[in-house]
Amino acid sequence: MAHVMPDLFKIDVKGHSVTSARTEMVARHNLVATDEPPERGGTDLYASPLETMLSSFLGCTNVIANYCAGLLRMKVRDMQFDLTGHFDTRGVFGKAEIGTPFPVIELKVVLDTDASDEDIEKLRGLVAEKCPVSVILRRAGCDIQETWVRK
Hints:
30% helix, alpha+beta, 6 strands, three-stranded antiparallel beta sheet, single chain
């Protein structure tokens, strides 16, 4: 029997292939779907799996940044995000062995806050350490180039 660590939180997602380009999943009771644009055989009804992954990074950044702002006693009224993932397609198409499909991810976070630049930098560092999606991407070799600024 496998040893279960007490702090592990189990997340179950089930899914099925609707078409060769579209997948429907259920997380808890919520439908999650991905699709591809027509040029990749899809119908463009949903975000692609990679867009969904990058969207998860923004969603996780939001949740963890608000949590960490509370730890730091920072008042954050709003956050806006802008993200660009630079996707190296050579690995998918067999042109080269690559270390990570996203060698660079650019993230800009604009905060509506009265916090100082020093406190914003503390928040950025704490989020980088605590956001599970950020940790996964960094450990996969992604260079996350972050800019956190006050609105």
